[in-house]
Write a structure and sequence with these properties.
4 helices, alpha/beta
């Protein structure tokens, strides 16, 4: 049970891929009051959907106690997955509506476990539409791809 006095933490996350599959990056911003933290990462061979999920996961993994979380993403896949689809997937033993295994199950299970420790509001914003934090997360994700490519 999340305490009503739990802090409000805003998480903004985005993922990007150069090719799909291909090199990918994710960017996340955490904000609690006046405090802000930026995170990002790289994967040499991945998909856009995996990067979107990992961006959200990284935000939750950075939290050190139960919080009221407002997560904002431009990924309908992440938002709808957590708010519309996941209950059915779990009920059907991680099969989608076509009775096929759910893609990225490993990440969905991690995200479900992490989100379950918090009171979460899921918000979607249109990507590349001027939302300041979403644009910053996209820039972090793309910078991670470039840095990862340069290191290889």
């Amino acid at each position: 049970m999340i305490q009503s006095s739990a802090p409000l933490v805003e998480i903004f996350s985005d993922g990007a891929c150069s090719g799909n599959p291909g090199p990918g990056g994710w960017g996340t911003i955490l904000r609690c009051g006046e405090h802000e933290k930026e995170l990002s990462g790289y994967d040499a061979e991945t998909t856009n959907n995996r990067m979107e999920l990992i961006g959200a996961i990284a935000g939750f993994e950075a939290l050190t106690r139960p919080c009221h979380v407002r997560l904002t993403t431009d990924s309908e896949y992440v938002k709808k997955g957590m708010t519309e689809w996941i209950e059915g997937w779990v009920r059907r033993d991680w099969k989608n509506s076509q009775k096929k295994p759910v893609a990225n199950r490993d990440l969905w299970e991690r995200l479900l476990e992490l989100a379950g420790q918090h009171q979460v509001e899921w918000h979607w914003v249109r990507g590349h539409d001027g939302h300041a934090e979403n644009e910053r997360c996209d820039a972090l994700a793309r910078a991670a791809i470039e840095a990862g490519r340069a290191a290889n």
